[in-house]
């Protein structure tokens, strides 16, 4: 016999859908407001009706007390159901539709009453204040039940208080007026509730469309997952609102752009400064996989608009890939140079072999000396003028590559650079990029030549690279330093238009500049100025003279 399944518990609570929850809460709020407004209106209405009834009773009492001869009749005649006081009081009561009008003497004995049997008896409520000459308004209970009352003193022609007049308005009539007003008030409240329910439905429909019918718990989970994803991925994410201001930036974007959380609420221009990176984030540059340089980093940016008019930009770090691409270019150039040197070396060996076979030994020795001397002269020329080993090695290698490409690479006679560079790696990047661009510009042209000048003026390093190529048109002399701009077809493995941009960024980072102009005799001349690129020269080492050994008395 299988066990019986446990009974399912009935779970009561709010529905899961946002649409239903918002509608239910708003209808509840509208109903609560309607009930509260009705209660707040009824409370003063009841008090207002009570006050009106008491004032009406007081006015009738004052009118009755001012009737001519009434005070004298109370003073001079005995109380009687058929007396003149009873007749006058009943006349006024019927005319004003009051519940009762009681006229009493100074002892509180009734002279009039709606029940003739009560005439001559003592009033049931205390008339002391009225007999003392004061007007009284109150809600009280008497022989005729609960009523709104007005009591005034009754004075004779001399102004002496001889009695009092008490007038009552039935409290049931006041309550009837209040109850009569309630249906209309409830109708207004119901109409307001209906309007509120309709507005709640419309708002809920809008929320339903915007939240795509997700539950609040689902929205909270999505937000938590979004935060974890944004701050966990190794790709920069920058979100902008419809006004173009940054509303979200994750940890990786802060690292790549060199910014902090304080940029939230600011525009890209305010957060990053004017430049291509700000233009890409703001959408002023269109396209996919846009290259931009931020500091020493090469970034690939993509921007996608969102439905609310904003946009989300993603950033990927391509610095290492760009460096690998440049190393690949250098490796390919080196392989081409080695291949050319192999052919040249084979030709020289064949020449040397021919000289030896012809027994022209002196000519062979001279030929070997010339070949070795040319290479040694180039290396010595560079190392004598450039004392930094990294830069010297770079230029010696570039000279070999240039020779194989049929280009003469010269180091200017004005070149003098001591071994005091603060950032030799940065200057190697600058020189390498400029020399490579110059070699590309003059490749394949007759009598092509590239000249490099490196000199120090105090702590400032000045670099000039001249070539005999076609030069740079004046209208392009600023564009060539823009990321992504190039006149050459990019290779398959990387983008063009980064090298010169890096050169300018490196120069500006040190407070310097990078410009291009026209070289003497045609071609382009690039000038890079790097203030404070060299360290202060150290003190000259002091020459120590060994002192003569002192002799002791025993030695003397």
From TrEMBL:
Keyword Translocase tagged: no
Compartments, record wording: Cell membrane
Catalytic activity: ATP + protein L-histidine = ADP + protein N-phospho-L-histidine
Residue intervals passing through the bilayer: 20-45, 185-203
A single Gene Ontology CC term: plasma membrane
GO BP annotations listed: regulation of DNA-templated transcription
SUPFAM superfamilies: ATPase domain of HSP90 chaperone/DNA topoisomerase II/histidine kinase, PYP-like sensor domain (PAS domain), Sensory domain-like, Sporulation response regulatory protein Spo0B
Bias-annotated ranges (Polar residues): 547-556
Keyword annotations from UniProtKB, A to Z: ATP-binding, Cell membrane, Kinase, Membrane, Nucleotide-binding, Phosphoprotein, Transferase, Transmembrane, Transmembrane helix, Two-component regulatory system
Pfam families (alphabetical): HATPase_c, PAS, sCache_3_2, SPOB_a
All copies of domain Histidine kinase, residue ranges: 423-534
Location (main, coarse): membrane
Entry's EC annotation: 2.7.13.3
PROSITE patterns xrefs: HIS_KIN
Region (Disordered): 65-86, 535-556
Superkingdom field: Bacteria
Membrane topology: Multi-pass membrane protein
Enzyme class: transferase
Keyword ATP-binding: yes
Protein name as catalogued: histidine kinase
